[in-house]
Amino acid sequence: MDYQTVLDDIKPTVMEESEVQKASGMLLDYLNALCREENIDAEAVLVGSVAKGTYLRGKSDIDIFMAFPLSLDVKVLKQKGLYLAHKCCSYFNSTPMHQFASHPYVTSDIGKYNVDFVPCYRIDDGSQLKSAVDRSILHTKYIQANLNQEQRDEVLLLKRFMDMTGTYGSEFKVGGFAGYLCELLIVEYGTFENTLNEASNWQYGHVIDLKDYGTAKQFKDPLICIDPTDKNRNVGAALRLDKFSQFIQSARNYIKSKNKKDYFYPLSRDISKEDILNEFASHEGSVLAIKFDIPDIPQDTLHPQLKKTTDSFKRVLNKNDFLVFQTGYWTDEENIAVILIELAVSKLNKIKIHTGPRIFYKQACHNFIEKFGLENCYVLDDYMVLNVEREFTEPDEFIKHILTPKHISLVKIGKNLTKKLLNTYELLSLDELAKNDDFLVFLDDFLNPNQHIKR
């Protein structure tokens, strides 16, 4: 395939490149001049995809790391790093916002760019690491030294392909491939097409070790890509098994597809609210949609807690015989979230089997009979059991029972979500929720998993 038409659409324009280089240059010049003027032993360095020339059009966020000497106390590093960031934001008339990773850093919108100001230590190799962010400058230098201009285009093709198939991005809500991992794949395989051809044959635990460190055995992840700058780090550690698997299949689909160009553009779909609701109805199961307000917390905190809560609802429903078909969650990341649970049954029978001890434990069986009465007990396989009446036969009533202060402990809820969930939850119909276009897209994905990897 001739990829030039795709590159014409996804590569930054000459003007975009010029503007981002000018903006980042101004920020670096100001910070480094400030360090000299105030005798602060630090250097501001441009890192990330902008520095490496591997950013997609319209995604030119600026990452500036402020490198301090290893001898500096970490408390002083935080203090001086935040001081420099605040001074820079003030100079360029922007508002600093604190974020937290290994230690605090600052984000701000300066002009048309989202800028990260991150304090770190100045290191020469991974063995000197004092915090996770310290590697970033080394990553940038490695990619700058090992990718030629043509291969930077190959990285753009790979990133775009992954983005359009839902496998790009290492943040929790995606669980896919990090930008640095994409770059290392091109360093390893040379081109976008070679990467997909190789990936189509990957097995669980596939190893990429560019420097032959031989440290892969210490990792048990789906993809093991040893960081060239740190032999004890797997760059693929954040890659979830489902996204690893989806990328493998998307590569296979792409290789066989007659419409390869379509893989570089958003999925074409005509979503009808009526069709979506009719498809759910055709399943003849039961759907629970729990809508609630969300707290003001970072996305990287919100999404893990929503997943934990959703998974816990699934476990407790299955434990109480409400057979869960599939689950998912959706959030606008500002105000609300919805946990969606589709069950294979709409209503349970009134009687369930209460299992007691194994028949071989004489005293335990005697106690069981004493408690429940010989006339009520019987042997099923090798267990003493009895039939009891269910407290709840319908899933919505069971959920209402759980979502009370007295019984909320039955589910494991993200610590920041408990209060909001208890105080604001509503059980709504899909018809009410499907008025939101973004939620309708979520419902379409819920009903049609993996459609992004097919064209």
Structure description:
This protein is α+β, with helices and mostly antiparallel strands. The chain folds into four domains: 4-131, Beta Polymerase, domain 2 (2-Layer Sandwich); 147-264, Poly(a)-polymerase, middle domain (Orthogonal Bundle), CATH 1.10.1410; 285-348 and 392-453, Poly(A) polymerase predicted RNA binding domain (Alpha-Beta Plaits); 356-384, no CATH class. It is built from 16 helices and 15 strands. The protein has helices at 4-10, 14-37, 48-52, 74-91, 136-146, 149-164, 179-189, 192-199, 241-256, 273-282, 299-319, 362-372, 395-402, 418-424, 430-433, 437-447, and strands spanning 43-47, 62-68, 97-100, 104-110, 113-121, 206-208, 223-227, 230-234, 286-293, 324-331, 336-343, 351-358, 377-380, 383-389, 426-427. The strands form four sheets. It has a five-stranded mixed beta sheet with strand order 1-2-5-4-3, sandwiched between helices. A four-stranded antiparallel beta sheet has the order 10-11-9-15, with helices on both faces. Strand 3 (97-100) and strand 4 (104-110) form a beta hairpin.
CATH topology of the largest domain: Beta Polymerase, domain 2
Structural class: alpha+beta
In CATH terms, what is the architecture of the largest domain? 2-Layer Sandwich
Distance between the termini: 16 Å
Largest sheet descriptor: 5 strands, mixed
Shape: globular
CATH superfamily heading of the largest domain = Beta Polymerase, domain 2
Strand numbers in spatial order across the main sheet: 1-2-5-4-3
**What portion of residues is helical?**
40-55%
Query: Over the alpha carbons, how many angstroms does the gyration radius reach?
Result: 27 Å
Structural domains: how many? 4
Task: Tell me the total number of β-strands.
Answer: 15
Please identify the top-level CATH class of the largest domain: Alpha Beta
Overall pLDDT score: 96
